[in-house]
């Protein structure tokens, strides 16, 4: 009898432990899951109370022996012991929310040999899941987190606002406004990312004033029915609905494709006619130092250039604005790299410690007196929800590419001006003089700049943009759109040499030489061509008239001038010109050879560099 009593007493002890847990966890402060779990335990204890009442009735009738008591208690022993283990673990670790659900599922799996205990724990799991799945329902059907006790596995950071996407380069709104917390229920682990994304999409739709309600939500209540898992199908349907709705909203109502084409027209100079007009009318303002430039005046000139170009037909052209940076392009790239954001991860392997010091030396040696021509860039007004794709980070990358293209166009225009200056000397017989060498050097520099611009536009930007645009048309979610767009920008930054500090340093040096040469030639040639009245007073030892322009030729080439002009090229001027030309030719030749050698050495690892190296090969043979 004593042995039978010892076998029965643990049942009473288990009841006391479970009952204490139920009483302590029945308050809502312990969370909805704990409250539902305690309610389910209370229902089981009621069955225990009913059994005790029946046994007591049998005892009062004198029909209950100790052996009979043991017989009737045995079915309840296993269940109460299993519940006690769960309750003790939950109490010891003060578990709540998803931790309770994971504990119940793990204990049910451990009871593989006891079907009754396993079924009981699975039933308890279903009851405890009910409030948790209610929170999940509102999230995947409405995009709302209704989680008063912080039990849900998705956290909301209300300090992050959508406005930061257009203001902060390192904005984390999309990544961190809603994020996964530790402790995801094991039965939702595989669907966690889809659940997070679904709610994020619905939240964006709601913030846009778009009514969002999954069509089948009223008849698709999420339930956890053991192995069947019908909730997973509901989650997938909700995800597909939210993804399609948001993508349709952004591409149709907010016309994302038109915005992408506008970015290509203006920042990637796909339609550069407005830029030619702008550079002509804004030259006087752009040659000033950045601090003295009137941005308002530049904006009015930009608007004028847009209205007189094909851009006037673009409904988005009014969102284009101008701004003036305070640092050079290499300096801005260096700042972005040191910020430790994603752009630093894109730098090429050759950007070693030595490369970093070279880059810093180059930035420090850059001219201090930079002008608006080196710092001018465009900006673009982007509204929510387009700012998810065209964020401040994306716009900054567009601006980096635009600054490179804009300055290359400026250098090319200056060299074209030098070529026109050379054309003014065609009426003079200057064969055998230094100016003939200047013709050749000018053509080499023009070939370099035109090859560089052709590479940037037609071999990098144009094909990559078309690949990105085609992929965007076949995407099924806004995340895929952002992924393709970001990949496009990062690839363009790299292939446009902006993430190659050593190559960019050489290119900037070559452009600087071209500008110095152009300025020097455009000043020297006019100053060395003197009129007849000056020549007649010059001794023959100081200068000779190489060719006299006839009256007929002067009338044909300069019909608006009646006075005849005789120009001369003095021997002393020729020596000065030759010395100046030799300095620039030597510097240009040395830098160009160095660039071609470096491009060729890197082209095996980075094949796209071979295209630029090939375009410059013909120039390299002539150096």
What does this structure look like?
The chain is an all-alpha fold and 623 residues long. It has 23 helices and 4 strands. The protein has helices at 2-24, 32-60, 66-93, 98-110, 115-142, 173-176, 192-207, 230-253, 256-267, 273-281, 283-286, 295-307, 329-338, 353-365, 372-375, 392-423, 434-473, 478-495, 501-528, 532-535, 551-557, 571-602, 608-622, and strands spanning 154-156, 178-180, 320-324, 376-380. The strands form 2 sheets. Strands 1-2 form a two-stranded antiparallel ribbon. Helix 1 (2-24) packs parallel to helix 3, helix 7 (192-207) runs parallel beside helix 8 and helix 17 (434-473) packs antiparallel against helix 18 (478-495). The longest helix has 40 residues, at 434-473. Residues 351-357, 362-366 and 531-568 have low confidence and may be disordered.
Short account of what is shown:
The protein has helices spanning 2-24, 32-60, 66-93, 98-110, 115-142, 173-176, 192-207, 230-253, 256-267, 273-281, 283-286, 295-307, 329-338, 353-365, 372-375, 392-423, 434-473, 478-495, 501-528, 532-535, 551-557, 571-602, 608-622; strands at 154-156, 178-180, 320-324, 376-380. The chain is mainly α and 623 residues long.
Characteristic key phrases:
two-stranded antiparallel sheet; 623 residues; two-stranded antiparallel ribbon; single chain; 23 helices; mainly alpha
- What count of helical segments does DSSP give? 23
Multimer state: single chain
What structural class do the secondary elements suggest? mainly alpha
Can you count the beta strands? 4
Q: Helix proportion of residues, in percent?
A: 55-70%
What sequence of helices (H) and strands (E) makes up the elements? HHHHHEHEHHHHHHEHHHEHHHHHHHH
What does the radius of gyration come to? 39 Å
Report, as a whole number of angstroms, the end-to-end distance. 111 Å
Low-confidence stretches: 351-357, 362-366, 531-568
Shape: elongated
Largest sheet: 2 strands, antiparallel
Mean pLDDT: 80
Task: Kindly estimate the percentage of residues that lie in beta strands according to DSSP.
Answer: under 5%
Spatial strand order of the main sheet:
1-2
């Amino acid at each position: 009898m004593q042995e039978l009593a010892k076998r029965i007493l643990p049942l009473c002890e288990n009841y006391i432990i479970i009952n204490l847990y139920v009483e302590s966890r029945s308050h809502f402060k312990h969370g909805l899951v704990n409250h539902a779990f305690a309610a389910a335990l209370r229902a089981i204890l009621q069955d225990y109370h009913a059994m005790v009442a029946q046994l007591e009735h049998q005892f009062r009738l004198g029909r209950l022996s100790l052996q009979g008591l043991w017989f009737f208690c045995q079915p309840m022993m296993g269940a109460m012991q299993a519940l006690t283990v769960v309750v003790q673990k939950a109490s010891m670790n003060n578990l709540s929310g998803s931790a309770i659900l994971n504990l119940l599922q793990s204990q049910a799996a451990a009871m593989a040999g006891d079907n009754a205990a396993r079924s009981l724990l699975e039933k308890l799991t279903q009851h405890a899941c009910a409030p948790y799945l209610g929170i999940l329902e509102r999230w995947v059907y409405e995009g709302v987190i209704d989680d008063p006790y912080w039990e849900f596995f998705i956290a909301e950071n209300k300090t992050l606002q959508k406005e930061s996407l257009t203001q902060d380069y390192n904005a984390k709104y999309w990544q961190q406004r809603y994020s996964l917390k530790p402790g995801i229920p094991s039965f939702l682990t595989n669907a966690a990312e889809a659940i997070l994304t679904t709610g994020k999409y619905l939240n964006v739709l709601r913030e846009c004033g778009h009514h969002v309600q999954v069509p089948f939500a009223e008849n698709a209540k999420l339930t956890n029915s053991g192995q069947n898992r019908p909730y997973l199908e509901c989650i997938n349907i909700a995800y597909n609905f939210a993804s399609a709705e948001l993508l349709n909203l952004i591409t149709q109502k907010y016309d994302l494709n038109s915005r992408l084409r506008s970015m290509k027209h203006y920042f990637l100079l796909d339609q550069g006619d407005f830029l030619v007009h702008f550079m002509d009318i804004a030259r006087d303002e752009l040659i000033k130092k950045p601090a003295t430039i009137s941005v308002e005046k530049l904006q009015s000139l930009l608007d004028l250039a847009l209205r007189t170009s094909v851009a006037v037909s673009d409904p988005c052209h009014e969102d284009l604005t101008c701004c003036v940076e305070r640092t050079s392009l290499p300096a801005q790239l260096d700042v972005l790299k040191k910020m430790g954001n994603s752009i630093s991860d894109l730098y090429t392997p050759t950007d070693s410690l030595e490369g970093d010091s070279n880059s810093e030396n180059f930035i420090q040696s850059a001219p201090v007196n930079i002008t608006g021509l080196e710092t001018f860039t465009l900006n673009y007004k982007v509204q929510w929800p387009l700012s998810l794709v065209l964020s401040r980070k994306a716009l900054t990358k567009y601006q980096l590419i635009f600054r490179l293209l804009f300055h290359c166009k400026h250098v090319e225009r200056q060299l074209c001006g030098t070529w026109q200056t050379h054309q003014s000397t065609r009426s003079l017989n200057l064969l055998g003089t230094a100016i003939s060498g200047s013709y050749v050097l000018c053509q080499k520099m023009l070939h370099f700049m035109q090859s560089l611009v052709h590479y940037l536009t037609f071999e990098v930007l144009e094909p990559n943009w078309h690949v990105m645009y085609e992929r965007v048309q076949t995407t099924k979610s806004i995340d895929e759109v952002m992924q393709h767009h970001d990949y496009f920008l990062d690839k363009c930054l790299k292939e446009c040499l902006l993430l190659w500090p050593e190559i960019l340093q050489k290119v900037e040096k070559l452009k600087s030489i071209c500008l110095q040469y152009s300025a020097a030639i455009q000043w020297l040639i006019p100053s060395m061509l003197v009129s007849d009245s000056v020549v007649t007073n010059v001794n023959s030892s100081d200068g000779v008239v190489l060719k006299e322009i006839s009256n007929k030729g002067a009338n044909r080439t300069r019909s608006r001038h009646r006075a005849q002009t005789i120009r001369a090229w003095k021997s002393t001027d020729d020596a000065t010109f030759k010395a100046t030309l030799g300095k620039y030719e030597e510097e240009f030749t040395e830098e160009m050879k160095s660039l071609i050698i470096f491009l060729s050495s890197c082209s095996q690892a980075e094949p796209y560099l071979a295209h630029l190296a090939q375009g410059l090969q013909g120039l390299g043979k002539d150096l």
